[in-house]
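Handout, tutorial session.
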Amino acid sequence: MSDKKVSRPCHHCKSRSASAPTDTSKIHYEKLWLYRHCSSVQQRDRQAQKAGQLFSGLLAMNVVFLGSAFISSMIFNKVAITLADVWILLSILKVLCLLWIVSYLLGTSRQPHAVLYRDAHAGAIWIRGSVLLFGSCSILLNVFQIGYSTILVHCKSRVEIVFPSIGILFICTQAYFLWHHSKDCIQVQHNFTRCGLMLTIATNLLLWLLAVTNDTLHVEMESQLREVERRLAGKARSSHPHCCNETTLCTCPNTTICKVFQKGYILLYPFNTEYCLVCCSVLYVMWKNVGRRISHHHIPHTKPKFKLQGVVFGPLLGTSAVIIGACVFMMYQIQATTLAPSHQVFVIYYSYYIVLLPLMSVGAVIGTIIHALEKKELDTLKNPTRSLDVVLLMGAALGQIGMSYFSIVALVATDPRDLLNSLILSYSVLLIFQNITQNIFVIDGLHRRRTPPGKEEDTKEVQNREAFSQRRVSVLELGQEIRKASLSYIHSYSHLSWKRRVLREISFFLVLCNIILWVMPTFGAHPVFENGMERSFYGYSTWFVIVNFGLPLGVFYRMHSVGGLLEVYVTA
């Protein structure tokens, strides 16, 4: 009986399958309630994420346009919109950002299941260190501004004291927030968090735009004064001693503390622009990570450590470039502080760049060729931090590339056969080529999978450490131990493959070169303001607009390239 009962359904199944084979060949999972429910939830989640990103992006766009309109009106119509009005608007935005950051720290991040995932690639130590470094310099900048405005309180408004005070609180709170929560993938209050992050990004962008604008006006006034002094040099002074009393009503008195505040403010001013740009990049990664769920295979099990192992020639060449660049920089700064910078100092400055830039370009080209020969797998996993690094490298490089093309057109159209003009022309062409080759090398290296360290190398290091710790080293044995340590370093250097050695040498050399190329324009070496070639061709105002939008991007590019090259060095 049991066999018959079993055989009957089989007979019906065979006949049913023979009559309608198309019904069993397709299983309609969409008719299941669980499948329809899960798919609708996923679709709604994606739609809600896109809608939240769109709304928060529109919020940031409107805030940036409003602030840009205020700043532009201040530049072109100082009577209707003053700098104090712009400061009031930015102070309101800072207060709103502070309220949101405090609510995130005390409320959103402490909710249950708020931070289930953390992006291991976001908030690298060098980025957070840059936030602390530039944030500390920006705090000192605001302190100097408060002290300077307090001394000149008889001719300055109280807004000039209140605005930097709010700025100090904003910088401290934002730096703490980014240091502890830059890796968060928040899972609650998505829209509120996205809007808060975008509002903070927009505020930092407006602060950067105001800083660039103020620096432009400051350098423009300083250069105009220098031109006036050059014209009046050697001529008899006017017989009216009180002709300039109106311009000296709000000048710094002849006291030491006032001069310190003034010089410190001018020295630390470029760091404020870098701080705003770095904060924008970190906040953008946090905005992309809102609601993101990271699977386990995206989480790296071991974090690569930075070791000065396997590099000899890169540090030597890079250190030489840094020392020579520091000497050229000091020589230029001493000469540029005079009323008439000599022609020779410009020749030395541009000659240094003409020698260094081809070396950097050749190194980047060799590194790119080695990447192609390695046949290492590309890392195709979703990584918002890496995507942002690529965008920032390409976007920031446009500053120097754009300035270089403007210089090339001006110099070719005037007199390219002059010595200084030919040096500037060569510098502009080499700078374009160096930026392009370095971007290709860094971006290609960022997309390579990490190379695991050799087991043989690690075990030998552990054995050497254990043997050294267990042995009692006497005075006579100290030289032998140093000799053994040197031999061990040479052995580990030769143990690496030639491709990894060359990549590490090139990466370290480019790191040091980008550091000195970041230091020189950051601390005041701006020959494009002083040589007068492009300024006489484009006109005073036009050239200053070009330079002061391209120069901060160039400084940011050098700083961001250091982080990318360190990543390439670690992954080699």
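The second record follows below. Compare its token runs with those of the first.
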Amino acid sequence: MCCDLKRRFLLLYATQKGQAKAIAEEIWQQAGAHGFDADMHCMSEVDKYNLETEKDPVVIVISTTGTGDPPDTARKFVKKIQDRTLPPDHFTHLQYGLLGLGDSEYTFFCNGGKTVDRRLQELGAKHFCDTGLADDCVGLELVVDPWINGLWLALKEAFLMQKQKEDMSGGVSSSLSASHQAVNELNLSSEVQSLKLEDEGVGSSEVLSQKLVDISLVASTRDTKPSLVHSVPPLSESALNIPALPPEYIEVQFQDTHGENPHLASLTSEGTTFEVPVTKAVHLTTEDAIKTALLLELDIADTVFDYQPGDAFCVICPNNGSEVEELLCILGLAEKTEYFVSVEVKQDTKKKGATRPQHIPERSTLKFILTWCLEIRAIPKKAFLRALAECTSDAGEKRRLQELCSRQGASDYTQFIRESHVCLLDLLHAFPSCKPSLNLLIEHLPKLQARSYSVSSSNLYHPGRLHFIFNIVEFPACPARRVSRKGVCTGWLAELVAPLLAPSKTVLDAKGGSAPIAKISIFPRSNNAFHLPADPSVPFIMVGPGTGISPFIGFLQHRQKLREEHTTWEFGETWLFFGCRHQDRDYFFKEELASFVENGTLTHLKVCFSRDCSTAEVAPPKYVQDVLRLYAKDVARILLKERGYFYVCG
């Protein structure tokens, strides 16, 4: 910079699960070393900033949730800028850069960021750097790291141009034009092949807040391939650019063992939570099916829980009990399981705006925190690996953790951490000299999120009942993870309803009596789009391979009841495209679908089986998209001529 004063920029983040906040904090931490002062706020803190009068550059980090929605913390902001009475020059004074986070496995990739970006442009705001769209499917860091590296050059140019405008009314100097060209050459595409992270790309814009680590360790000649715990040249011989060490900000104190844990309803801010019994569990697949699918029925008759077909709801689930116990043993806290824990912010912390994580109760037992509050299965972020390295006494293990969080070790991180679904427990087994403190876990492990499921029933067809279906998620053992695991929620649900799946066996509790009815805590998830057409005469097409058929069973149950109760109404045609692997193993709701066709509720049922062998002269279609092509004219007619609806659930 041309002077010693640090130039301020506004840093806003909008997060659903904490990723956008963590990235914003990384930007804030690096800013000082580059001569900037980042004024960081959550987008929901509308009383802390004012874009209408903002004169400095604005940096926005925003995630996407649901089906392309902005995160909850951005709702008020988005609603405000979506006001159609705002003039097109409302933000002409504003210059900003935006980093969007998303997952390309979902249809509306990075739509939260795209929505804000598009609207700011419509209102006259200008980019001072290119928009970055990071993909969690392949690794956010592939876009996030180079975007942050390029941000500092872009900010310097923005301030220089701002000073130039203040000093003179003429054009931009040639040196500024060259700088501008350098910024434009920074390719922020999410395509992996366009992202080059080699050392020479760091030269002119060195990230000063990153430490250079040069520890040369001689590896065994027998280890010729990299693994979670071992690297090979050139990485094993490289100097490393590692992230700055995140400042500690949590203080944990153990207290007496008297008191009660919070109610599960306090773990969510989504409104009313309902504890409801599970009254039925059914296997939807045969024992030899590749995946195991279950249908559960919940009794909601004694609650005010209401839903429409197409709605979703969330299940509050715990971490696996044996994994919690194992973690407590490794941490040396097994004897303090039932101790109450007080969590406060450290008075001398260097973390800006540090607050106690809202998902951690002010007072609860250690076991409660690890069971219900922290996602101990979360894939560790690089900042967490950096912090864990500082808790590791063995030099070789510490070096490997540094490699995994370094820029040079990006591909190893993707292969051995992200793609292998490695979690904290796996790291502690792989690096036994790593002894993190409890406060470090609370600082870095994200909130244990409730899991969302589509409703698979109609309240007209099943009054006082709610059905949903799911596959039991399986994570087989691999070199980076020594044990196989089931999904956090689906594994827990399967274990919970095991007695209902084996009704012939009487399940007894510890005292010899009948085991209590299983109950789970749920809360509704808002949905304004995925519902049946308001006009029953409108035709619609449903595409639901595998468990994606779930909401459409509710659609068809509801439609059948409407047809029975309103015989004079006109009903449009209905199409269902369903696909599974094997006709005799995982054809969900086969009899019920046949009944819908027979009584006229479902006009057309098109099914395909991807793994079944066929002796037919012309092979049948394997996937739903293949069947859709066969009926392209009907699809076009329904959508273009009859203005029908098209639903997809995967």
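Points raised in discussion: The first strand starts at residue 7 and ends at 14.
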